[in-house]
Amino acid sequence: MNNRLSVSYEDKPAYEILLEPDFKKLPLEIEALGMLDRRFMIITDSNAGKHYANELFQLLAPFARSIQIHTFPAGEQSKNLDTVSQCYEQLIIDGFDRKDVLIALGGGVVGDLTGFVASTYLRGIRFIQVPTTLLSMVDSSIGGKTGVDYKAYKNMVGAFHQPSLVYMNLATLDSLPEREFLSGMAEIIKHGLIKDLEYYSWLKEHSGKIHQKDYETLQEMVYHSCQIKGAVVEKDPKEQGERALLNFGHTIGHSVEKLMDFQLLHGECVCIGMAAAAYMSMKRGNITQEEYQDILATLGQFKQPVHASGLSAEEVYEVTRSDKKMDSDKIRFILLGAIGDAVIDPSVSKDEMIEAIQTIL
Is residue 229 among the annotated active site residues? Predict the structure, then answer.
């Protein structure tokens, strides 16, 4: 089975994604990129760091001029400009220059934040994504979108900055709590819904082996999701068109995530948002009642929520109005034209959204 794929940026090869059972090949990949004898900083959080930071340190130290580990508290609450500032200060103290390298070791928060630091420190230095969660492997580590939250507004400050390499050690998935692992299925199910009906069906058929974390099944699943995400971002690297399809479920999902004060995981909120978007797609006649129910059942098959409690439809709708996906004061809502074929629709009305939101509350 293939374990390597390439992603282009502006029609030129940009970086490779490598799926491996361990970290052993990372030094060889770094050597191939001409990064030997450089300063490295591993930026990680308190969750991933305790499992893998020292292993990476020992593995890379023989090839580095120097290597540091910078750890911040795990959680969305650390994804802010204060944490970025702390990274800048450490990089300055340690004398990092434009040829040195950052390594993002962790989930989506670590990857987004490290990428943003890399994009802005000295107007841009190289970085490597080493995602350790299912969600970050199939989503945030690919495509070069970096950023942090500003106050209560998610991902409002950021930049496009491509990694030099995405190195996935699939064995890191073994250390994930079940809830976090299954939350990562949100983006994977989304990939099937928006782009590939056959893949969506495959996920349902292989749910048992996915729950068991069968290595070959996980490798095939992650590889195919990376193919879908990579193909979309290659066509639209800066989200001017087709890349917006990847936001299926995110407009309402982000609103729920914020209003619930991040008590639910990101993937769980995306699933709730996908349930609402699927309802709208059904009401417009794009998918059948049976297909809508099948989507809800599939989310349930992977133990994902399709409801949020304690919120009002009106407040969820109002928060969507501040979403960064707005275009000339209109929400570019992502609906299913069919299962496996999503569409961008700026004509979704407030009444349609309120009705859909009510189905998830």
Answer: yes
What does the pLDDT look like over 275-332, one tens digit per residue?
A: 999 999 999 999 999 999 999 999 999 999 999 999 999 999 999 887 655 555 568 8
- For the entire predicted model, the pTM comes to 0.93
Residue 243: active-site member: yes
- Counting Cα atoms < 13 Å in the Cβ hemisphere of 221 gives 30
Query: Is 123 a catalytic site residue?
Result: yes
Among 39, 47, 266, 286, which one carries the catalytic annotation? 266
Query: Using one digit for the tens of pLDDT, what is the confidence trace for 187-245?
Result: 999 999 999 999 999 999 999 999 999 999 999 999 999 999 999 999 988 888 889 99
> Is 70 in the active site?
no
Clarify whether 179 is annotated catalytic.
no
